[in-house]
Amino acid sequence: MRLTILGGGGFRVPLVFRALQADPTVTELVLHDTDPLRVRVVAKILAELSARGPRGPEVRVEAELDAALRGADFVFSAMRVGGTAGRVRDEQVPLAEGVLGQETVGAGGVLYGLRTIPVALHLAERVRAVAPSAWVINFTNPAGMVTEAMARVLGPRVIGICDSPVGLVRRAARAAGADPDAPGFSYDYVGLNHLGWLRGMAADGRELLPGLLADPAALGSFEEGRLFGAEWLSALGSLPNEYLHYYYFRREALAAVRSADATRGEFLHRRQSEFFTAADEAGGPGGANGPGGDPSAYDLWERARLEREETYMAENRAATGGWQRDPHDLDGGGYDKVALALMRAIARDERTVLILNVPGGGVVSALDPDAVVEVPCEVGAFGARPLAVAAPDEHQAGLMLALKSVERAAIEAATTGSRAAALRALVRHPLVDSAAAASRILTAAGW
Questions:
Q1: What is the DSSP-derived secondary structure letter of residue 216?
Q2: Cα(349)–Cα(343) distance, rounded to whole angstroms?
Q3: How far is CA 216 from the centre of its chain?
Q4: How far apart are CA 79 and CA 39, in angstroms?
Q5: Rounded to an integer, what distance in angstroms lies between the CA atom of residue 293 and that of residue 431?
Q6: Alpha-carbon gap, residue 200 to 146, rounded angstroms
Q7: Which of 115, 215, 224, 286 fits a 20 to 30 Å CA distance from 436?
Q8: Is 18:43 a contact under the CB 8 Å cutoff?
Q9: Segments in 21-163 forming alpha helices (H)
Q10: Are strands 135-138 and 185-192 parallel, antiparallel or unpaired?
Q11: 216-223 — which CB contacts under 8 Å span 24+ positions?
């Protein structure tokens, strides 16, 4: 079976390859990236992984998109259109107007979507033309918005993924004293990408969430509990996805971002540039290090990857008193694990349940059937089928409707070039508080 990975930023691809070393499902891995340095470094890291452990699938680099897609059974789309420099602009332009700039949330997320959707649609069209039987697993952010745009071309053969929901479920289960992998464990989750809520959690039919929400010590033992605080979680009656911190604590989150020495994008842009330069110059594998004891490309990647994880959402943690992530906080399931579980379930018809971004088909009553939602899905050879979920309450439905209108206005703007649609997308976002500021943001961003 052939897997094609598009983009990946240099950090996700080795994780996927490492998992594939222990799984014979994929026999050929094709890499395509618009940045020659990035793909060169990734290929070097994969060669080192093969030398260190099981060989894994054969790796081939293709410079042309159609050549990379042709014959693919699965396509992982992990593009970052505009690179980390684009992310820096997405953050800084809104911040200059006193509006949150973040990769997927608020004005920054809208700007990223506007830039990414035309490229994602081109990819979808090429898949339909040269690899019509391929399944596309979309990592590209903003995942919900991009998946909905691609679904207009590929229908159910594109599925969006995110590791935040499964990470939330696993951490909450442990805090409640349950095993999330046990046969009798179940949960209730609903939302859009980076806007969802864990509303129920049971072990062998015994509901666990009310007891967890009433236990400040247990809530303080995991990441979302510390982010949102026991008082608000008890009042809310559910456990929100970590990205809802930007909505529930917008004043504190914005202040923390504005007072930081660098935005998240600036930090990653600097550190990734340093990493790729060093990894490109590093020698090949030589035991734990490269020749002469210097770090190899793999060693440099592992250090950079760990730093990314440890500093994830650092501003939000600063806004809640400042605390370091512990090993359990880092157990998010991982994009690589979620994607490979999805791919194996489809390829082998091994039925499983995963939280995915797919057209809801009416399972979320507040939204139309074509709206991409983030809900538990049954997965098998047929693809991903959303499972029935309890109706969102008024608060959840209100936020979901507001954000869906943002996504659809952004898709309209990206596909037509309409500034009016782009302005609607920005102004409708709950984290943008001024139509005048939104207009200036669009102008500064080149619209």
A1: H
A2: 10
A3: 29
A4: 12
A5: 49
A6: 28
A7: 115
A8: no
A9: 36-52, 65-69, 83-95, 106-130, 143-154
A10: unpaired
A11: 218/175, 218/176, 219/175, 221/175, 222/171, 222/172, 222/174, 222/175, 222/328, 222/329, 223/171, 223/325, 223/328, 223/329
CB of 309 closer than 8 Å to CB of 301:
no
Rounded to a whole number of angstroms, the CA Rg of the chain reads 21
Separation of alpha carbons 358 and 369, rounded Å: 10
Residues 112 and 87 sit within 8 Å (Cβ to Cβ): yes
Q: How far is CA 149 from CA 214, 254, 287, 414, in A?
A: 40, 29, 45, 10
Contacts of 79 (CB under 8 A, 6+ apart): 6, 7, 116, 119, 120, 123, 140
Torsion of CA 77, 313, 115, 407, to 10 degrees: 90
Closest CA to 119 of 438, 415, 436, 425: 415
User: Are the beta carbons of 135 and 346 closer than 8 angstroms?
Assistant: yes
Would you call 431 helix, strand, or coil by DSSP?
Answer: coil
Structure tokens at 209: 């969430």
What is the residue type of 214?
A
Nearest-angstrom CA–CA distance, 251 and 41: 40
Q: Which residues of the chain have pLDDT under 50?
A: 286-291, 331-333
Instruction: Please report which helix (H) or strand (E) contains residue 198, including its range.
Output: strand 195-203
- Output DSSP code: residue 5: E
Cross-strand pairs, 101: 106
Q: Which residues contact 322 (CB under 8 A, 6 or more apart)?
A: none
Position 285 scores a pLDDT of 54
Of 115, 180, 179, which Cα lies nearest the Cα of 149? 115
Instruction: Please tell me the predicted confidence (pLDDT) of residue 336.
Output: 81
349-to-1, 341, 343, 378 alpha-carbon distances in Å: 14, 11, 10, 11
Query: For residue 204, with 0-12 CB atoms within 10 Å meaning exposed, 13-18 middle and 19 or more buried, which class applies?
Result: exposed
In terms of DSSP bridges, do strands 206-207 and 195-203 run parallel, antiparallel, or are they unpaired?
antiparallel
Owner of token pair 């490109």? 280
Check residue 331 and give its pLDDT.
47
Please state, in angstroms and rounded to a whole number, the distance separating the CA atoms of residues 115 and 91. Answer: 14
Contact 411, 115 (CB under 8 A): no
pLDDT digits (tens, 9 = 90+) for 365-375: 999 999 999 99
Contact 149, 77 (CB under 8 A): no
pLDDT at 323: 60
Beta bridge partners of 446: none
